[in-house]
């Protein structure tokens, strides 16, 4: 059984909150997911805290709220999974240079409208959307949805890529747009080992 601890051992390699949310499911490249760290509402809140979508105070308040309203927490968790599914359908086609469907973009628009309806503008070096006063159980999803819209509207779409070794999606922020792996430490290293073994086998058969 997954525990909340698994959520906080995930690598945050997407370079964007929405991509990191998609990457809570792992598996081979091109294939269906074979593991999922989001197994319930407590894990969703733990992930939100870990990924920087929630402050510790907000996470604690949501845990209390979910204990008082288990049915509401269940519904919010179901919505989180649906959100992750459609975000996957928004960004995965983009990694192949294809446009997402109008239907999934409409869902994203509706959720962004809902998110901004619960946000306020907070001053800083520029003003930014904040959800400090949003005490709904879907609070963890607000910044995720907003990050998706930000990436679509202000990001470089050709930098949105798929890892060559697993199903992770990331925003390639490297200077020469050469990033191929979610992380050099796992998929990148696995590929290097694979090539090394293949090269040695070739040499051995000569
Ligand atoms: Zn990978």
Can you walk through the features of this model?
With 206 residues, this protein is mainly alpha-helical. The chain has helices at residues 4-7, 17-22, 41-51, 56-68, 70-95, 102-117, 141-154, 184-204; strands spanning 25-26, 35-36, 120-122, 128-130, 160-162, 169-171. The strands form three sheets. The protein has a two-stranded antiparallel ribbon. It has a two-stranded antiparallel ribbon with strand order 3-4. The chain has a two-stranded antiparallel ribbon with strand order 5-6. Strand 3 and strand 4 (128-130) form a beta hairpin. The radius of gyration is 19 Å and the shape is globular. The N and C termini lie far apart (48 Å). The site of zinc ion has 7 residues, from loops.
Sequence stretches where pLDDT stays below 50 over 5 or more residues: none
Q: What structural class do the secondary elements suggest?
A: mainly alpha
Write down how many β-strands occur, each being a DSSP E stretch of 2 or more residues: 6
In which order are the strands of the major sheet placed? 1-2
Name the helicity range: 40-55%
CA gyration radius, whole angstroms: 19 Å
Tell me the strand percentage band.
5-15%
Q: What spatial form do the alpha-carbon principal axes imply?
A: globular
Taking the alpha carbons of the first and last residues, their distance comes to 48 Å
- Taking all residues together, what is the mean pLDDT? 93
Number of helices: 8
**What is the element string, with H for helices and E for strands?**
HHEEHHHHEEHEEH
Q: What hetero molecules are in the model?
A: zinc ion
Q: What does the main sheet amount to?
A: 2 strands, antiparallel
């Amino acid at each position: 059984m997954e525990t909340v601890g698994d959520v906080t051992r995930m690598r945050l390699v997407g370079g964007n909150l929405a991509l990191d949310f998609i990457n809570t499911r792992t598996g081979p490249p091109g294939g269906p997911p074979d593991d999922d760290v989001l197994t319930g509402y407590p894990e969703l809140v733990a992930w939100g805290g870990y990924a920087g979508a929630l402050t510790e105070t907000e996470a604690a308040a949501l845990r209390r709220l979910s204990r008082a309203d288990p049915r509401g927490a269940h519904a919010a968790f179901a919505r989180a999974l649906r959100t992750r599914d459609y975000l996957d359908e928004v960004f995965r086609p983009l990694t192949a240079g294809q446009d997402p469907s109008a239907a999934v973009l409409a869902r994203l628009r509706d959720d962004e409208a809902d998110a901004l309806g619960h946000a306020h503008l907070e001053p800083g070096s520029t003003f930014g959307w904040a959800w400090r006063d949003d005490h709904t159980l879907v609070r963890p999803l607000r910044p995720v949805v907003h990050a998706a819209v930000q990436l679509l509207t202000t990001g470089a779409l050709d930098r949105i890529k798929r890892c060559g070794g697993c199903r992770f999606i990331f925003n390639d922020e490297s200077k020469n747009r050469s990033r191929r792996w979610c992380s050099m430490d796992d998929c990148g290293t696995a590929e290097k080992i694979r090539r090394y073994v293949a090269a040695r086998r070739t040499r051995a058969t000569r």
